[in-house]
Amino acid sequence: QVQLVESGGGLVQTGGSLRLSCRASGTIASINGMAWYRQAPGKQRELVSSITTGGRTDYADSVKGRFTISRDNALSMVYLQMNSLKPEDTAVYYCNADIQTAWYRNYAAFWGQGTQVTVSS
Asked: What burial letters (b/e) apply to 71-87, b meaning 16+ CB within 10 Å?
């Protein structure tokens, strides 16, 4: 069984910063790509940022220059540093990871339970 547990969400004023963390635990043979998604009320879930095992990153245009994704492969963790936050960043943020639970299994996508980020104007 695999669990992704996020932390670090909260309420912040416009222009503030938050750092989200996500730790993968359980029966894990290997972790491939990791990512952060978000879903605002009434909107579809969208990809915010992703990072490969080797550290290659990608960002949604709306967060480029403000958010930074990083990971610690030894700890099975992924982080999202969010700076210059705007009210439109308000959403539930979800951690996602492609995980192989045994060497003979394919990678599968796992999700965290989500953490609320609210940016007040």
From this structure: beeeebbbbbebeebee
Q: What pLDDT digit, counting tens, does each position of 26-68 carry?
A: 999 999 999 999 999 999 999 999 999 999 999 999 999 999 9
Residue-averaged pLDDT of the chain: 97
* DSSP codes of every residue in 22-75: EEEEES-SEEEEEEEEEE-TTS--EEEEEE-TT--EEE-GGGTTTEEEEEETTT
**Residue 88 and residue 64 in contact, taking contact as beta carbons nearer than 8 Å:** no
Q: What's the farthest any 2 CA atoms get from each other in the chain?
A: 50
